[in-house]
Amino acid sequence: MDVNFSIRLFFAGIFAILQTIFLCPAYAFLEPYDLLYDNGVEAFYSSDYKNVVSYMERALSSYSELRRTKVRCRLQCRDQHPFDESSSDLRFFDAVLHRASCLNECIESVVGSQSMHRVSEDVIQDFHRRIPYNYLQLAYAKLKQPDKAAAAAHTYFQANPEHVEMSHNLEQYKAWEGVQEENFIDREARPHQKAFTAGVKLYDRGEYEEAIAYFEEALEEYYKADVECRALCEGPQNFAEHEHLNYRPALYELISDHFTQVLHCEHECVRDLATRPGRLSPMENYLPLHYDYLQFAYFKVNMIQEAMECAQSYLLFHEGEEFMTENVDYYREVLGQEVKPREEAQRYIKRHRQELDLLRVGSDNLGVEYTEGNYWSSSGGREDVNRIPSGTDGWMEYVPISEKKNVTANEVKELREGGPLVYDSVRLVQNSEALNGTQRVLFDDVISEDECAELKHLAHAVMMAGDGYRGKTSPHTPNEKFEGATVLKTLQYGFEGRIPLKSARMFYEVSEKARQIIESYFMLNSTLHFSYTHLVCRTAITGQQNVRSDLSHPIHADNCLLDPEANECWKEPPAYTYRDYSALLYLNGDFEGGEFIFTEMDAKTVTASVKPKCGRMVGFSSGGENPHGVRAVTGGQRCAVALWFTLDPLFRELERLQADEVMESLNNQQQLDHGLSINPKDEL
């Protein structure tokens, strides 16, 4: 027998045995989620939708299981090998070595070799942003499984609320046969936030007993999530302050640096647990707010001892706060005894303060400045009547930590309106009260019929499809085409002789007229600057109007991200947070549909509707107090001048400043020509 053949036969037999062993269930380790994800993406671009679903669902399952395994093993090994406070250095490092060995054995018993699960930062970010659910919703839709497509789309949209196409997909799924409201679930919902949201809704309806159950569940889930978050911090760390090749620390420097990074990560769990998916800013006062809601809810159901316990717990976070201190005094008087804060709140605060002390020391060792985050800043005292305990009016009162305040109804009422209209021809049609809101106004006869006709003619001459919408011809709905042009573009066209210069000047002057009216009516104390000016027309696409359930422009706010489920509007990017007032000047009304609507924060309840017509202008403040949208344009073309303004001169529209220079140049040229109307192009 050939020797080489015998050797090959031997190794083939060994390989077959090993393959049999490792493919049996006992050796079936966790599949790497990045590999499954890549296979799913490849299947998607091959239109293999069954495998898209298979790979993506397995990738999500693997990702979750890897996370659960790390948490379980780190907590388990910590309990099995605790640090003895009175031990020597050798005892300390003995516990460290045993804990490390325990971790490695525990994790690899489930997932296999940990080196197989080292994933690139790009893939990690894709999972944080829930990108796999985008592929899943499209694949499920192709496979005619609309209920699963709806759930995947809803899950993705929660973390990506600015994704316009997904909002359209959700509207389409709602119209599909067999899709129910309960199909729109967040598959990645965090239990503590889900329970808290449910509790708030019940609290707002005065259903206090039911709200208490949810708030208690939310607290329990929060503290569980906090333990898990801290455990996940015990992984590899990045040392951005040091160049890797030159970083040669001594033993205790290395331990100190690594531990400080872990400690900082654990401290940031406060922010992480209070941040909703897709948001940059956490809900301010989030954990203390649980105790605030609970103390008042318990009071309303006559459970005074529990109410005092929760009020005392709140004061651990905001020592000496007036409104809660008065509540505690009331509860103490009713009970005739003292009640201590809850133990879990005491333990949490004690650990948090210890972390702060250690972080200050560790940051000094790292040579970086540590700034304590204001995680629990309070909304300030509240007035109590007849010493009856006060409760929160709802979480809209607590604004994001980023110090970019949300506008609340109370703040808006302090603003003024009703100033002079500047121009005699302009008529006030409806004020805020008539429009069922705050900082809203409707004018007629802002411009004449002739001016409307000229601006419409101008629009048809200069507008380009997708202008102002990053080139997308149907940015808000596939059933309409959007075209637009800016003031600067029209002036340039006029200067070049491609359109009548008179019409370009009119666009510039009309927009300035609108700015003056808004600034004067709302009685602003400082100059209102242009943020963006856009001549825009939207046209119904023929053949696509029979069955429409979407809007021409979905409900939104102009300077914050509207979050209807949380009853919030988050003032953070990608919203244009610097915009303060908005206005829409309509050029026509000869089209079907297209009404402008204001809604409540739920983005469903319509509070006012405006039918466009020539010379009509609606103006309003740009924040979360004025959610608005446009109903579907089902026939014809709807044209308007859209204007956004800012009180901050740093955010003035650059194109507007350039347009001002062009106008100044044209005016100077006109003076030199002694009033003669000469087109610059004619001089060539």
TrEMBL record:
Keyword rRNA-binding tagged: no
EC number: 1.14.11.7
One Pfam family in the UniProt entry: TPR_leprecan
InterPro entries: Leprecan_dom (IPR056585), Oxoglu/Fe-dep_dioxygenase_dom (IPR005123), P3H (IPR039575), Pro_4_hyd_alph (IPR006620), Pro_4_hyd_alph_FE2OG_OXY (IPR044862), TPR-like_helical_dom_sf (IPR011990)
EC class of the enzyme, as a word: oxidoreductase
GO biological process: collagen metabolic process
Sorted UniProt keywords: Dioxygenase, Endoplasmic reticulum, Glycoprotein, Iron, Metal-binding, Oxidoreductase, Repeat, Signal, TPR repeat, Vitamin C
One annotated Gene Ontology cellular component of this protein: endoplasmic reticulum
Gene3D superfamilies in UniProt: q2cbj1_9rhob like domain (2.60.120.620), Tetratricopeptide repeat domain (1.25.40.10)
Keyword Cytoplasm in annotation: no
Domain Fe2OG dioxygenase, residue spans: 533-647
Coiled coil: none
GO molecular function: iron ion binding; L-ascorbic acid binding; procollagen-proline 3-dioxygenase activity
Cofactors demanded by this protein: L-ascorbate; Fe cation
Family of this protein: Belongs to the leprecan family.
Family matches, as PANTHER family: LEPRECAN 1, PROLYL 3-HYDROXYLASE 2
Protein name: procollagen-proline 3-dioxygenase
Originating organism: Anguilla anguilla
Organism classification: Eukaryota, Metazoa, Chordata, Craniata, Vertebrata
